[in-house]
Every structure is written in C-alpha cells, then in structure tokens.
Design brief:
By secondary structure, the protein is mostly helical. The protein has 5 helices and no strands. The protein has a single domain, classed as Ribosomal protein L20, C-terminal domain (c-terminal domain of poly(a) binding protein). Helix 1 packs parallel to helix 2 and helix 3 packs across helix 5. It starts with 6 loop residues before the first helix and ends with a helix. 14% of the residues are buried. The model has no long low-confidence stretch (mean pLDDT 96).
Length: 114
C-alpha cells in the first residue's frame, strides 16, 4: 500500500509561503527552499522589530522632550521629575508632540512645573 501524502495541504502550505515571498529579489521569490528561508527570516525580523519599535519611539520622545526642556533651562530628568511632582498626568508621546509642534503649549507646561 502506498503512503498517503495529503498533497492538497502540502501544496496549499507552499503556496502560502510563496505568496509572502512575492516581491523578493532573485531566487528568493520563486525557488521553494530559498523562498521559505527568506520568508521565515523576514518573520523573525518582524517579530523582533515589533518590540524594538516601542523602544525606538520612546527613545525619540525622550530626545525631543529633552531638547524642548533645555530650551527653557532644564534637563530632561529635572523636567520629568517636576512633572511627576506637579501631578500632571501626561505621557511622553504627548509631551514630545507639544515640544516639537506646539512650543508655546510646551512652554506653558514648563512654566507650570517650575
């Protein structure tokens, strides 16, 4: 008796991976083993970078707040400490946006915490 392979499921699995490889360069887009490795590596990078993105943005917000605070004679550390003591419940993302795009509003916050 011959071995059952379930070719339908195997083909569907390969087709799904090849669909993800669309747009890759060279053999990565049309040779099964190369494409499978490239797609799996891409998924690893995507998983890792979904975490890294959060760190990167927080770092960017801190740099922007620091630049805004230093224009008013404070360091980032001093400013965030005073924001906490003043009881202002505003996150870094919003503070960074104010520092970049609305300097007058950011100055008002700095004056309030000083």
């Amino acid at each position: 008796m011959s071995k059952a392979n379930n070719r339908v499921a195997s083909r569907a699995r390969r087709k799904a991976v090849m669909k993800h490889a669309k747009g890759y360069f060279g053999r990565r887009k049309n040779v099964w083993t190369v494409a499978k490795n490239a797609v799996e590596k891409g998924w690893e990078y995507a998983y890792r970078d979904r975490k890294a993105k959060k760190r990167d943005f927080r770092s960017l917000w801190i740099q922007r707040i620091n630049a805004g605070a230093r224009e008013h004679g404070m360091s980032y550390s001093q400013f965030m400490g005073k924001v906490g003591k003043a009881g202002l419940d505003i996150n870094r993302k919003a503070l960074a946006d104010l520092a970049m795009n609305h300097p007058n509003a950011f100055k008002a916050i700095v004056d309030k915490v000083k």
